[in-house]
Design a protein that fits this description.
This is Tetratricopeptide repeat protein. The protein is mainly α and 930 residues long. It is built from 46 helices and 4 strands.
């Protein structure tokens, strides 16, 4: 590469990195710029690249790179200030001194003399440059506070207060946060909260604020009796910390908060999610100290809750284990708690030796004392997710292996691993069964060559047993007996049935015929074939009986006979079926019950299925069963219970490292949202979206998860986040050119428009028009009608009466599509719009039309509200006498005692009182009083 080409690439990398969020990709880009500048021998450009690297490393938690880059730049500047100025655009060595001063103070390996030297050098250079000293005194305040020297810190803080702010002062958010930290550490939590409230009320922020201040305020808020605020700040601070490239240090405060509020399961989940970051930035020892103290507090709480023997996922990672000086193997909560306290105390001793006091040791003591502090503040809908699996005895005999392989046969890799582990058994009587198990896996994988080899091996095994008739039949038919390889073999199978077959082969022929796709042309025939297979298996006492009974149920289901299929499955379940067939039958029964609307039956089946998978130690199956139960519970309207099961599914997927983890997290988020827990929904959906984005081909799923993340953010009143996420989803989905994503882009534009309408932003109309444009390109009347409905409302909201025509168009499309309730709803919308325009007669007419349409759709509640609208319009127009009848009509549709009935009654009473009809008013009020 030519020098000019190299320098041009460096400049491109630096410019692009400035446009990126701090994080691994940005850091790598800056590192590439540094490398290329070195290779090109361009020192001035290398100086700029390393200056940029200082800020990148500081804000991504890479102290080693930060020290190295800063020291190199400082040396270059001192050697030739003109060639290597202290400031290049926004890159500033004097500003970076703040980070250096903090970094050396937070590592006890740097002696106090070196900490003081950095601070003195900072002051000297600030004075020499003629800049303000506010930043110097702030750095000294923070360092003294961190060391527990509060009198010194107070003096430095007073000196800072005497100076005006300048270009080198710390940002307002950091100053207030540091001050709050000073008062909190020195024992004045009331003053700390006062400053914290100012941060929140004034919305001051910077790279790590206000999330850092929010984390530090959690305990003081609890102690001040402001638990609901603490919960609110927990969600927002933690979510911001996870998206911050250097947010690991903030997590410690949240683990302690979750420990003292009894949310140990959530705390353990967060600890496991972030424990891999513990070895990161080894030079920031203070951050590690805080993390370890928080681990001790949380894990002690886990132990007290009775779960001290649960293994902490991630504790086995070599880099993590090295910090504790233990072997890289899973640690229980109790073991990791003890390790955390031990290492935290070692770090505390090193800090105290450096600082010349006992402040860090006292911090450990205060943290240990938190076991006596408790606040009842549920965060999750369940305290501790039960995900312990039974540990069945490891298979020792060939028969054990074959039994287990059948049980886990749906997990193809696990089943084949078991079969590979055991190898072909030496017992001749087990060899046919072994090769049948191999064949089952090959069929599931659609591995024709493997299946053919397994069939040939099974035939040899049968001949060795003297089962020549069966071997001859299977040799003649080969793969014709086995789906999915026998699609064109119906004639051959039917011909075989005419011969004298042994029971085992006959059952195989019958089941193969019943399962052929062509059997769908004659449903009764397929079912009769399956029934005959059951009869033969029963008469001959074959091991295949459970399988044939299940086949009969599946054949009925495939032929659309749900009722008989349900009965057949129930027959399997009440029989003494082998565990493998019971597991399959429960899975199908649960799903069938859901499709038939028998949700309670389905839930019982799914829960039994979960129990069976748990009993055999099959984590992937347990995860699937728990999620199946979650969907059925959600269908039944039991959203909180759906969340419980989904939590179990996610936990099993995490512990088993199954491929369903991201999908499970997605549905957990959806169920949280359905249960009215938008903050928890945001966490789950954000994790799901990130997971999908990291998987090849997961882009569409990631966008879908982010769409629901935007919906959850709106429900959580995080409107800025909702706007940003929904805008991104709408843009990316539409620009993808993928027809499959058009509907998602439509929904995102629609949701964005609704959001903007709610905050009275006229840009809503543009988003809704985008939704309408996408809907016009699809052959889905429902989409078009919905877009017109929303656009009409949006236009009218912002004074454009052409929205009425959009509503009329939506009504026509809805009528043509037979959407009766939707038509009623649009007409009701139009009635409200006309009322806002003071077009009384039209408003009343449309409201009454909507009421009739709602009633015809079976929605008396909405019909009552439309009649109430008509009554209010008439009353507002001075026609209260006419309104009375409509008030009474509305009341007749509403059940006595519900809030709506009470509210309408009180309103009617006021109208009657106004009309001088006092007796009637008293009667109406007396009716609700009774």
């Amino acid at each position: 590469m030519k020098v000019s080409e190299g320098t041009s690439e460096v400049e491109r990398l630096l410019d692009e990195s400035e446009m990126m969020a701090y994080g691994p990709e940005e850091s790598a880009m800056v590192a590439d710029a540094v490398r290329l500048a070195q290779e090109a021998g361009a020192e001035e450009l290398l100086y700029r690249a390393r200056m940029r690297q200082v800020s990148s490393a500081a804000l991504t938690g890479d102290s080693d790179t930060m020290f190295t880059a800063f020291s190199w730049c400082l040396g270059k500047h001192d050697s030739d200030p003109a060639r290597f100025p202290s400031r290049i655009d926004d890159l500033d060595l004097l500003w970076y001194y703040k980070w250096m001063a903090e970094a050396v103070a937070l590592n006890p390996a740097f002696p106090q003399s070196q900490v003081d030297q950095v601070l003195d050098d900072m002051e000297h250079r600030y004075r020499a440059a003629g800049v303000g000293l506010s930043g110097v005194w702030q750095a000294k305040t923070a360092n003294a506070t961190a060391a527990g020297r509060f009198e010194e810190a107070a003096e430095f803080r007073a000196a800072r207060e005497d100076l005006p702010r300048d270009d080198y002062s710390h940002c307002e958010a950091c100053v207030r946060s540091d001050d709050a930290d000073f008062f909190r550490r020195s024992g004045d939590e009331a003053k700390a909260l006062e400053l914290f409230d100012e941060i929140i009320e004034n919305r001051v922020r910077c790279g790590s604020e206000p999330e850092r201040a929010q984390g530090k305020a959690l305990l003081p808020l609890l102690r001040a009796g402001r638990a609901d605020e603490a919960k609110w700040h927990h969600f927002r601070s933690y979510r911001a910390a996870t998206s911050n490239a250097d947010g690991f240090g903030i997590v410690a405060d949240h683990l302690i908060f979750l420990a003292v509020t009894g949310n140990t399961e959530r705390g353990l989940s967060l600890l496991e999610r972030h424990i891999g970051e513990l070895p990161k930035d080894p030079l920031d020892v203070y951050k590690r100290f805080c993390a370890l103290v928080s681990y001790g507090v949380l894990l002690d709480a886990v132990v007290r809750s009775g779960h001290g023997d649960v293994e902490v996922r991630g504790s086995e990672m070599p880099d993590v284990a090295a910090i504790f000086g233990v072997e890289p193997e899973p640690r229980t909560a109790a073991e990791l708690a003890a390790d955390s306290w031990r290492v935290a105390e070692e770090i505390a001793a090193a800090f105290d030796a450096r600082n010349g006091n006992g402040y860090f040791a006292s911090e450990v003591e205060r943290a240990r004392a938190l076991e006596d502090e408790h606040y009842d503040l549920p965060i999750e809908t369940q305290a501790f997710v039960p995900t312990e699996l039974a540990e069945p005895a490891a298979p020792t005999t060939p028969a054990d292996y074959l039994d287990l392989a059948v049980v886990v046969k749906d997990d193809h890799d696990a089943a084949m691993a078991l079969l590979d582990e055991m190898g072909e058994p030496s017992e001749p009587e087990l060899k046919p069964r072994f090769h049948s198990s191999v064949l089952a896996v090959c069929r599931a994988r659609e591995d024709r060559d493997g299946a053919l080899a397994a069939v040939e091996a099974r035939i040899d095994a049968l001949r060795a047993l003297g089962e020549d008739q069966q071997a001859d039949a299977e040799e003649e038919l080969g793969l014709a007996l086995y789906a999915p390889f026998n699609t064109g073999d119906e004639d051959e199978l039917r011909a075989a049935l005419q011969r004298d077959l042994d029971p085992d082969t006959k059952v195989k022929v019958l089941t193969a015929l019943a399962a052929l796709p062509s059997s769908g042309d004659e449903p009764d025939g397929a079912i009769e074939l399956a029934r005959e297979a059951v009869g033969v298996a029963e008469s001959a006492g074959l091991e295949q009986l459970g399988n044939t009974r299940l086949l009969l149920a599946l054949t009925m289901l495939r032929m659309g006979d749900q009722e008989d299929a349900a009965e057949a499955l129930d027959a399997v379940l009440v029989s003494d079926a082998e565990r493998c067939w019971r597991i399959k039958a429960l899975d199908v029964r649960a799903r069938l019950a859901g499709g038939m609307g028998d949700f309670e039956v389905g839930i019982r089946a799914a829960d039994e299925l979960l129990g069976l998978h748990t009993a055999i130690g099959h984590r992937a199956g347990a995860s699937d069963a728990a999620m199946l139960a979650a969907h059925l519970l959600d269908d039944l309207g039991q959203s909180e219970e759906a969340v419980h099961r989904a939590q179990v599914a996610v936990r099993h997927a995490e512990l088993g490292d199954t491929g369903d983890l991201n999908t499970n997290r997605y549905w957990l988020g959806r169920f949280h949202l359905q249960a009215g827990e938008p903050d928890l929904a945001m966490e789950a959906l954000d994790a799901a979206a990130a997971g999908f984005a990291g998987v090849e081909g997961g882009g569409a799923s990631a966008l879908e998860a982010r769409y629901w993340l935007g919906a959850a953010a709106r429900r959580a009143q995080e409107l800025g986040t909702a706007y940003r996420v929904l805008s991104e989803v709408a843009r990316v989905a539409e620009e993808s050119g993928d027809e499959a994503l058009v509907e998602l882009a439509f929904r995102a534009h629609l949701a964005l428009g609704e959001l903007l309408v709610s905050v009275e932003d006229a840009d809503a109309v543009q988003s809704l028009e985008s939704a309408l444009r996408l809907a016009r390109g699809q052959e889905q009347p429902e989409m078009l009608a919905r877009a017109l409905h929303q656009l009409g409302q949006g236009k009218i909201k912002f004074g454009d009466e052409s929205g009425l025509a959009d509503l009329d168009a939506a009504v026509e499309i809805g009528r043509d599509a037979g959407q009766d309730w939707f038509v009623a709803d649009v007409i009701d919308t139009k009635a409200h719009a006309l009322a806002s325009m003071e077009r009384v007669e039209e408003a009343v007419s449309n409201a009454l039309t909507a009421a009739d349409a709602y009633a015809e759709s079976g929605d008396d509640g909405s019909a009552a509200m439309s009649e109430l609208l008509a009554a209010r319009v008439l009353d507002g127009a001075g026609r209260s006498d006419e309104a009375v009848g409509l008030y009474r009509a509305s009341l007749q549709r509403l059940p006595l005692g519900i809030p709506a009935h009470t509210g309408v009654s009180l309103e009617l009473g006021e109208i009657l009182e106004k009309l001088g009809r006092t007796t009637e008013a008293e009667e109406v009020r007396a009716a609700i009083a009774d």
